[in-house]
Amino acid sequence: MSSIELYDTTLRDGAQTEGISYSVQDKLRITEKLDELGVPVIEGGWPGSNPKDAQYFREVKRLRLKTAKLAAFGSTRRASSAARDPNLKALLAAETPIVTIFGKSWDLHARDVLRVSLDENLKLIEDSVAFLKRRGRTVVYDAEHFFDGYKGNRAYALKTLEAALAGGADAVAFCDTNGGSLPSEIARIIESAKAGVRVPMGIHAHNDSDLAVANSLAALEAGCTQVQGTINGYGERCGNANLVSLIAVLKLKMGADCLPEGRLKELTETSRFVAEVSNMAQRANQPFVGEAAFAHKGGVHVNAVMKNPRSYEHLDPALVGNERKILVSELSGRSSLVFKARGLALDLAKDTPQAKRLLKLLQRLEHQGYHFEAAEGSLELLLKRELKQFAPFFTLEGFRIIMEKRGRRLSSEATIKLHVGGVPEQTAAEGDGPVNALDNAIRKALRRFYPTLAQMHLTDFKVRVLDEKAGTAAKVRVLIQSQDARDSWGTVGVSENIIEASWQALTDSIEYKLLKDLAQKAVGSPPRLARRAGRGRQKAAITKKR
């Protein structure tokens, strides 16, 4: 397998995902990102179906794409002639070099959906392709429901391909539209069909049986040279073939040329960018690019990975722009703690009383309900506190929260007293709820000491009851996710009192931000030296504020 053409359909198929609604600007940003990755064909949408896609094709002309060619998508004609069909006219108006149209390969669809005769359906396909070819377009014919059609009426499914080729199609893409085929079926049917296809072939697989990537690879091994898919597998119902996984497998497992040299390391960034623009949380265990794709938790695994990463990793995460992650939990051994400590520039040896004590502390806290896998900010603070490598940025004297309900309106107010380097500060703030009021109050109190807190905001707040049988007296775990312009981090708190658990997670999130800022102020220092500098710079910063 030498060269495979990637055909991205995130902006059309991906846009059909439940919960995704791209603006024109969103689509333009994703187009630029895909071009930077080196994707050769980007399907921008269906200009004949909605005003947004028509506007996208007008505005995308302003982009200076370096690698990608654009494709517009549509269906075979519905009008009495191709020249009168508004859908085909819209495809031409999009002025893309490539046009992809789909036609019905399954006799069931011709009869029950289009409500036309089988011969008329063949005429629709040939006329539409020929019309676009006469106007200078490269035409990709998407044989919709081809595999179901082939299994139901083999002879007719092959006739639909012949009609597209008679019209002058430059390529044919076999579509597993219902996503119900098996890899063995895909390979067998393509092997049978390709004898009559004298143009390049592609595969367009849906993921309803969780086989879209496997089916795509089977099709490529059977002779297809184009693979269609979406970033992160977005798409209607269960999604489409995940182009991210396909790229990684093709490049690293099958040696196929599908991206320009040096672009593969941008794969993780691209995946996460598209997830962010799509307003979708990226699946942590998504292969190759997820945060957990190269995460190790069990002590035996961590110990082995530290000696030789190949022992529990099928490839170097840096190849796809990802990184190794060592999780620390009650299942971890001392090797995990030592690895984590090294990453934080902390001096901790495996066979020492310190390491044993820290592991027992960690296991005890996790037994109480703490969850450090999702709270690496709290974990770093815990390790530095226990190893005497951390000085508090502020000291709480106390806080009070008042909640008042008047009519239908419920208000919360928090008053807080604290000290920063011996300097007392007291303030109050309102909020939508008690935790929000407390968050507003502590930020207000610390604002003049630490202005960079204005750059930080909370992105997620989760509460979980740890012992349902205890009812309202149950212990709860609060997980907070915070973010600034550079990073995102998690912190955790546990208590029978939800306010106390929230306070723990909230103050950890603030102290982690301040510790991180101090480390980054060590301009020109390597990351590890910067971390070492953090503790020494804390006192200096506080003294300067005084």
What proportion strand?
Answer: 15-25%
CATH class membership of the largest domain: Alpha Beta
Query: Rounded to an integer, what's the Rg over CA atoms?
Result: 29 Å
Main β sheet profile: 8 strands, parallel, barrel
Distance between the ends:
67 Å
CATH architecture of the largest domain: Alpha-Beta Barrel
Give the beta-strand count.
Answer: 16
- Helical residue percent? 40-55%
The number of domains is 3
Q: What is the 3D form?
A: elongated
Major β-sheet strand ordering:
1-2-3-4-5-6-7-8
Query: Count the helices. How many?
Result: 18
Query: What structural category do the secondary elements indicate?
Result: alpha/beta
- Can you give the mean pLDDT? 88
> Which spans of ≥5 residues are poorly predicted at pLDDT below 50?
523-546
CATH superfamily of the largest domain: Aldolase class I
What's the CATH topology name of the largest domain? TIM Barrel
Structure write-up:
This protein is an alpha/beta fold and 546 residues long. It is 40% helix and 20% strand. The protein contains 18 helices and 16 strands. The protein has helices at 24-37, 51-59, 86-93, 107-114, 118-134, 146-152, 154-167, 183-193, 212-221, 243-252, 267-277, 299-307, 334-343, 353-368, 376-386, 434-446, 498-520, 527-545; strands at residues 5-8, 41-45, 69-75, 98-104, 138-144, 171-176, 201-205, 226-229, 295-296, 325-326, 395-406, 409-420, 423-431, 457-465, 476-483, 488-495. An eight-stranded parallel beta barrel has the order 1-2-3-4-5-6-7-8, surrounded by eight helices. A three-stranded antiparallel β-sheet has the order 11-12-13, covered by helices on one side. Helix 1 crosses helix 2 and helix 1 packs antiparallel against helix 11 (267-277). The model is unreliable at 523-546 (pLDDT under 50).
